[in-house]
Design brief:
Number of strands: 16
Shape: elongated
Largest sheet: 6 strands, parallel
Strand content: 15-25%
CATH topology of the largest domain: 2-enoyl-CoA Hydratase, Chain A, domain 1
Number of helices: 15
Distance between the termini: 134 Å
Mean pLDDT: 85
Strand order of the largest sheet: 8-5-3-2-1-11
């Protein structure tokens, strides 16, 4: 009887062994790359990727982080999800030469496991008034103390160096990966993703479902790429791109109003302006700059209407330049437009406006070249004797003509008037 059970036991063991292997093969880790300033689009991408990884039953999600910082609101949205994640979250400051600065420090601190590669740094988390302008000493202290309390809470929750975290905010302290590991700011230094997966294997972390033991060794790496729509939104959130879109939008609408029915400039301008205003929701904008840019356009139009000897045009260029500088008034370089973009754009836009307006004004005074009015002044040839009527050849056509002068066949004539379908002509002086 026992001998008969041995094959059954062996079969069951084999099935269990095979299922274990299959399960191991199914294990996967999702990887997303965040190599940009933290903005609402990035926050949405991170949060949705974490949810997607949880639904797919991934072992963990790795955020490859390289950021100069970003908006506080967007950062806090990410941190909220990292503090109570559905699956383990690993923040990996990568590649070499990358950094986790400002908002990136708090995101790293909030992760279940914080890792860095050699040649990276973390720190410089002092809060900055991204809206520009002066802030009172009392208000600055309030903002700093709030940030200190926030980052200390994150560090303590994850069992990391809370004292250094506070120092990163108060003194903008920044340290390389080796020192970060030494003083318990991060958990791991990994050369690459495979090394990271090997080192995280067997570690216990806390998720929304409780304590989880990571089984990442040999897991399949699945990269989650940002979709086309999010890539577009993230691209236009760049201040330089948003600025160019606004200028293109203003140009397009002007050309549409100046030439009703052209359609293409108007459609393109409207699309550009809508995209620009979306970007303005993700970037701190000084609307005094917007008003100055609009004023510059008014001055360009006025230059075409008023004889100012270029004073209005110069005023328009100055207003546009100042408005462009003020548009994104932030001490953070990644939250303002570059002068290398502003100067050429201002000069090109001003030139196009002035050129378009000049041509429009000239067109008002240009001699009519078509229709009845366009025939006046045309020179032709008499094709019969005109005394007082005859035939002439003008503008590629034969016409009945009448003249007070006697004009012989072959002589040149000039049109002086049009009566119905008959031309009134005179002898053209030689």
């Amino acid at each position: 009887m026992f001998n008969k059970r041995i094959p059954l036991l062996l079969t069951a063991a084999s099935i269990l062994f095979l299922s274990t292997i299959l399960h191991a093969e199914e294990r996967q880790v999702r990887v997303i790359k965040v190599q940009a300033a933290i903005n609402p689009t990035i926050a949405e991408f991170v949060i949705s990727s974490i949810k997607k990884a949880a639904v797919s039953g991934d072992e963990a999600i790795i955020i490859e982080l390289d950021t100069p910082g970003g908006l506080d609101t967007a950062m806090r949205e990410i941190v909220k999800d990292l503090l109570n994640p559905p699956i383990p979250v690993i923040v990996y400051v990568h590649p070499s030469g990358g950094r986790a600065a400002s908002a990136g420090v708090l995101i790293t601190m909030a992760a279940n496991i914080a890792a860095m590669t050699r040649g990276t740094n973390i720190g410089a988390a002092h809060p900055v008034n991204v809206g520009g302008g002066e802030v009172s000493k009392e208000m600055n202290e309030k903002i700093t103390n709030d940030a200190v309390a926030y980052i200390r809470g994150l560090a303590e929750k994850r069992g990391r160096n809370a004292e250094w975290a506070a120092k990163a905010v108060k003194e903008s302290a920044s340290i390389p990966a080796e020192e970060a590991l030494k003083i318990n700011v991060i958990d791991i230094i990994a050369a690459d993703l495979n090394d990271l997966l090997n080192q995280t294997d067997g570690r216990k972390v806390i998720t929304a479902s409780g304590e989880v033991t990571l089984k990442t060794k040999g897991a399949k790496i699945v990269r989650e790429e940002m979709g086309f729509a999010r890539m577009v939104l993230n691209t236009i959130s760049d201040p330089n791109v948003a600025y160019i879109l606004m200028m293109l939008g203003l140009l397009g609408l002007y050309f549409e109003l100046a030439n009703p029915g052209a359609l293409f400039p108007g459609v393109l301008g409207a699309i550009c302006l809508v995209l620009a205003f979306y970007a303005f929701q993700t970037i701190p904008v000084n609307y005094a700059g917007v008003l100055l840019i609009l004023l510059s356009i008014v001055l360009f139009v006025a230059e075409a209407m008023v004889t100012s000897y270029g004073i209005l045009a110069i005023g328009g260029i100055v207003a546009m330049f100042l408005g462009s500088i003020m548009l994104f008034d932030s001490p953070l370089p990644y939250l303002r437009a570059s002068l290398l973009v502003i100067i050429p754009t201002v000069l090109a836009t001003a030139g196009l406006f002035i050129l378009a307006i000049t041509y429009a004004i000239r067109a008002q005074f240009r001699k009519t070249e078509t229709g009845a009015e366009g025939m006046i002044g045309q020179v032709g040839e008499a094709r019969s004797r005109i005394s007082p009527t005859g035939k002439v050849f003008v503008a590629g056509e034969y016409w009945d003509a009448e003249s007070e002068d006697v004009i012989e066949e072959g002589e040149k004539v000039r049109v002086i008037a049009l009566k119905g379908l008959k031309l009134m002509v005179s002898k053209e002086a030689r």
